[in-house]
Amino acid sequence: MPDREPCCAPTATAGPPEAGRVSPPPAGRTLGAAGALGSTPGARVARRLVRLPGGRFLMGTDDGDGFPADGEGPVREITIGPFAIDPTAVTNARFATFVKATGYVTDAETFGSSFVFAGFLAAALARESPAVAAAPWWRAVAGASWRHPEGPGSDVGARQNHPVVHVSWRDAHAYCAWSGTRLPTEAEWEYAARGGLEQRRFPWGDELVVAGRHMCNTWQGIFPTLNSGADGYVGTAPVTAYHPNGYGLSNMVGNTWEWCADWFSADYHRDGPRVAPTGPPDGTARVMRGGSYLCHESYCNRYRVAARSSNTPDSSTGNIGFRVAAG
Predict the structure, then answer these.
(1) d(CA 166, CA 156)
(2) CB 134 within 8 A of CB 124
(3) Which of 33, 72, 121, 319 would be 125's cystine partner, CB 3.0–4.6 Å?
(4) What distances in angstroms separate CA 4 from CA 42, 99, 175, 180, one per listed residue?
(5) 252-289 pLDDT per residue, tens
(6) Distance from first CA to last CA of the chain, Å, rounded?
(7) How far is CA 22 from CA 34, 103, 178, in A?
(8) What phi and psi values does residue 313 have, to the nearest 5 degrees?
(9) Has residue 74 got a pLDDT over 90?
């Protein structure tokens, strides 16, 4: 992963062992409980997706309050073809359907732990969970996973319509393979997030709060000690909690980071292709977009449309999810 403060999402120090994992099936096929190929759920997923026409748009930003070292700029004209994208992030309920159908085991479950924001933990669990040195508000919690977002004793029972978290890029890729979809490219993601607006900071315009109305789920207060929850949530929100953008897509910024297909590079796109870019051919980290409920303008205002971050493909945290694309 590029050298940066792990404010957004810390990185796994070592990948989980392969033993016990169920390998992703070919695209459009499912693994049954015994690992046999079964029928595709792709048609069901496809009905959810929003078709977008593609075309030319201005990608990136030269905004001075961003993070130039992340490779947010320069602004460049990009052309992409038509594609379809999920109007929401994949929910806990949808991910549970995938796991039930395939027996898939996530990286966090195999690794035995995942990263959780310390403010969500009971005092005893916070004390016994190692802190990330550069960002002590992150704790490596044994037993944390998509099923148990805050570790042992927590569950997603009341969060079926919240985005699934504690999923690595590899987990998201496996879900896509099962459902006959794929992760969006970074260019597709930004085109979709902009909702037809050109060079705006957010999917709805340039102001974070519009006429006193919160438009997304980010940190409200003093990071990392006080979150007032003024936007309605202190952790994840339902995937349709806020008004959708001009393309009918919900929560493209805030709530959870979303994995993209591309390998991350801070400079590849400066002289890279301008037609249907897919990122560099290899790398050590995958692109994440959109920011999360932990983003705050005082520390990490990466909830802007053009903002970027990354993490290793096996890393998982309580603020990373994904949405699918096709075409």
Answers:
(1) 12
(2) no
(3) 121
(4) 37, 33, 29, 34
(5) 999 999 999 999 999 998 888 999 999 999 999 999 99
(6) 29
(7) 10, 7, 12
(8) -60, -20
(9) yes
User: Structure tokens of 92?
Assistant: 């806990």
pLDDT tens for residues 148-176? Answer: 999 999 999 999 999 999 999 999 999 99
Per-residue pLDDT, 7: 59
Q: Which domains does the chain have, with CATH numbers?
A: 38-326 (3.90.1580.10)
Q: pLDDT tens digit string along 2-57?
A: 344 445 778 875 443 333 333 343 333 333 332 322 346 766 777 889 999 999 99
Q: To which H or E segment does residue 286 belong? A: strand 286-289
Write down the residue that tokens 């403010």 correspond to: 119
Would you state the pLDDT for residue 145?
Answer: 98
SS3 annotation, 171-231 = HHHHHHHHHCCECCCHHHHHHHHHCCCCCCCECCECCCEECCEECCCCCCEECCCEECCCC
